[in-house]
Amino acid sequence: xxxADRQEKVSEVEVIKRNSRHLRGSIAEELANGEPSFTExxxxxxxxxxxxxxxxxxxxxxxxxxxxxxxxxxxxxARIPGGVLTPDxxxxxxxxxxxxxxxxxxxxTRQTIQLHYVLKRxxxxxxxxxxxxxxxxxxxCGDQVRNVIACAAPVADDVHRELREDVLxxxxxxxxxxRAYHEIWLDGEPVAGTPDEDEEPxxxxxxxxxxxxxxxxxxGDNCIDVYSNDVGIVAHPEGGHVKGYTILVxxxxxxxASMKQTYPRLASPLGYVxxxxxxxxxxxxxxxxxxxxxxANRRRARLKxxxxxxxxxxxxxxxxxxxxxxxxxxxxxxxxDAHDHxxxxxxxxxRWYLGLFVENGRIKDEGEFRLKTALRAVVERWxxxxxxxxxxxxxxxxxxxxxxxxxxxxxxSHGVRLAHEWSRVMLNSMACVGLPTCGLSVADSERxxxxxxxxxxxxxxxxxxxxxxxxxxxxxxxxxxxxxxxSDIAFVGRSPNKYDVFLGGDFLGRHLNKxxxxxxxxxxxAAEVEPVLAAFARExxxxxxxxxxxxxxxxxYFRELNVGLSS
Length: 567
Ligand code: SRM
Ligand code: SF4
Fold this sequence. Notes:
By secondary structure, the protein is of the alpha+beta class. Helix 6 runs antiparallel to helix 7, helix 10 (278-292) crosses helix 12 and helix 11 (303-310) packs across helix 12. The chain has a five-stranded antiparallel sheet with strand order 1-2-5-4-13. Strands 3-16-17-12-11 form a five-stranded antiparallel sheet. A five-stranded mixed sheet has the order 6-7-8-9-10. The chain has 19 helices and 22 strands. It folds into three domains: 143-192 and 201-338, Sulfite Reductase Hemoprotein, domain 1; 343-422, Sulfite Reductase Hemoprotein,Domain 2 (Sulfite Reductase Hemoprotein, domain 2, Alpha-Beta Complex), CATH 3.90.480; 426-559, Sulfite Reductase Hemoprotein, domain 1. It is globular and about 65 Å long. Residues 1-5 have low confidence and may be disordered. Bound molecules: siroheme and iron/sulfur cluster. Siroheme binds next to strand 1 and strand 2.
């Protein structure tokens, strides 16, 4: 008997999943019905296929006034394990957004690409066009394993090669297997009668209680924010190879402002496994969550709450009994870096890679700034592999040393700056999508952070802190999509134009920050944190980082300093 049967009342989404015949529902029929939107049941199922139904929120009020329905648009999210694309795959995204989407590409915090503004009537063609180059959208969203992330640095050594092999082995094991995807989007032959029971050996007919996230880091480099994943996997290199992995469990950022029983949590150490055992151990974690996760209350359905409710020791026992072996103790982890691999670096095979900063992940052409065209030109000419990072940036890999000046010239001629030409404030910033596409946003994010950062750049430079790495993240609601609760400074949307300010995370992603001020208007955000930055410049200990300083002093200390500003 699994958890779904043990709980008396399960949420509506559970019923939809169970009755969907492995995610078929009536999606195929609705795709052909000429309507601009899907039914609620199909909306839920579409997420598993990588599609969110949205509406253009900039148009909502106007359309309502005119007595018209919402302008429905679909967001399509691909699954790109470890963020790696061949040149042809990247170029297909570039074309598909022009053919069927809004003309931009959005690199996400889980190193995939989202297309926005796809109309329902173009959805099938868009998904097929991506599949033509072997990119799937299955597993993009929904109650299943989401895009598996990994350090994006394209280093040509055995450690990175082995890590990549393990990422792909895990994806292969835990990816959804339903043939519904093929049937609906790629015109596969429908399976006659009821789909066979073994169609989803891991997910069964109910899938997971909620989304589930795996992330791979290499010890020392926490560029992926490993502690924010349901399962963080940390590779331990020894003698030039991956010897084994530490497994961390129960990380997550999501919270709801009005619900105290929802909160961000850093993943806790579960144990250590030799490399060969990684996939089996991950399956044991996944099935323990599948069977015991909360299927009645979706707000409390993430792994982090199961672990807090039952205890880490109970969870470890459950995993070990499924795994059939004892987990070794996890070692203490040491982190030195979390930068996003910006700039030129030798790959180790005589070739070079180039890490580019993409402001809030948006690849677009706008006026003189033509990043989308520039990337297309570089990818068409030099055919680098394209590596998307978990900090919403892009790395191009495989250049000869002699290519470098010309690559730079092409980028510059399209108004694209190299990473060293951006300030650290910018390089260490991220904003989630927010308005106008995100149905959950209560405030602008991607469109708002660019208004705040120039002010913070001026303040930080004026205080002599321009060389400090201070992470600044913004989200349009408390769900945490830009992982705000582990950044040094976070602005979290609470209501239109107002944000809660959090302080005291950590550049290395090891600490949660704390609420500092509530409901601060957008135009006062920089002024609110200025006294804290000034105190840091004045009172820090030698070598102390911003987040460490804030945690040492405590946020109350700064509230007192700052009494003159909004409270
Ligand atoms: Fe997210 C929901 C965008 C990474 C926590 N997220 C959404 C939706 C789909 C809104 C919705 O449900 O209708 C957003 C679509 C906006 C749009 O218009 O595109 C959205 N999330 C994003 C992206 C695109 C943010 C970005 O700017 O890059 C990221 C896509 C990741 C991907 O490629 O798979 C994204 N979301 C995250 C992360 C960060 C991470 O995983 O490293 C988190 C925090 C970690 C975690 O899962 O706890 C995150 N998103 C959420 C939540 C809160 C979940 C919770 O436990 O409460 C929601 C709301 C929900 O699921 O109900 C959400
Ligand atoms: Fe939307 Fe909120 Fe996620 Fe931002 S944090 S993308 S506003 S759900």
